[in-house]
Amino acid sequence: xxxxxxxxxxxxxxxxxxxxxxxxxxxxxxxxxxxxxxxxxxxxxxxxxxxxxxxxxxxxxxxxxxxxxxxxxxxxxxxxxxxxxxxxxxxxxxxxxxxxxxxxxxxxxxxxxxxxxxxxxxxxxxxxxxxxxxxxxxxxxxxxxxxxxxxxxxxxxxxxxxxxxxxxxxxxxxxxxxxxxxxxxxxxxxxxxxxxxxx
Length: 199
Description:
The protein has 199 residues and is α+β, with helices and mostly antiparallel strands.
């Protein structure tokens, strides 16, 4: 009678031989040599409906036919004075400038951006085409009629200061240089010494 250890060894040898045989079959099928064993394992493709969306018309089909796609909402970029980056606002098609100002301020507060805008509502701000335009847009004007998707939101107090500075004859940028000189960071003698050094 064989001992249990010898019996175990014989069983392990049979397992190893079986694994070698299956590995060689797998590798032969991988390399293109088919013994016919793998051919029995053909996967059948499930039945599918070839055209699920046959009854629906897509936007591409509507454009191809000639029917224009109808806009329902507008995506607008509003840059707020002294704030980094534009706020993206989605508004209805029939919205006015005042609606856009209120929506931009709500979105700005919702995103918790800095600097924090003091509460005061949309009445404290004016909407401009860009930061370089002095004329603000009429609050009752429809956004779809403006022809632009990028706007600049400017506080009324700051706009009044710019208008007053230009009325005095100086630009608003001259104030900045005056502040630097007043603080003492730039002294008049420093520039003269620098000019002598260049000569």
